[in-house]
Amino acid sequence: MRKRSGDEGGLTKERLAVFAVALAGSALSGIVAGLIWAAVAPRAVLQEVAHGEAELVNAESSAFIVADAWFCLIVVAGGLVTGILGYRFLVRRAGWTAAAGLILGAVAAALLALWIGDNIGLGTYNHQLATSPNGTLFHASLALGAKSVLAFWPLLTSAVILLAESGARRPAASAADTGPGKSEASGMWTSGPAGEHSP
Fold it and tell me: Which of 92, 99, 101, 96 has its CA nearest to residue 25?
């Protein structure tokens, strides 16, 4: 069975280059994810009650939960896309080095998405909090409550790569089992001489 180029030998310049591309590409996708989160996630409405202090207008606001749900959905999609495209274009060519780059890049992407979402609009929020008169309404800045969802991006990337790799190995194993010299019969019957069958 012919091996993929990514399965041959140790670290080479080409494989290190693929590792760098996988790492950078995955990490940079976190920028897009953070911008999407900042654009679609709702923000709770606050009211200035004293200098530098604000309270929720609606104590039962679901904005924080919905913002976390949006982030979760975005990182799940990011993990699936990173795993599928990364496996198709990089892992099949460079093997484990590309997979390692994709997974490490996925960790960086999740953290980068969180940082961008947290910081977009934070300056405006701080300015309004510090300068608004009492009674002024304004929106809170984004903040992720469920930090555990950061793990979804690398976990899903890893799962997609593992599933794709195991799926690719099954046909190869089946082809090896039915190759030249292998019996194609099963059960009680085996091929006999001159096309006859013997029990």
Answer: 101
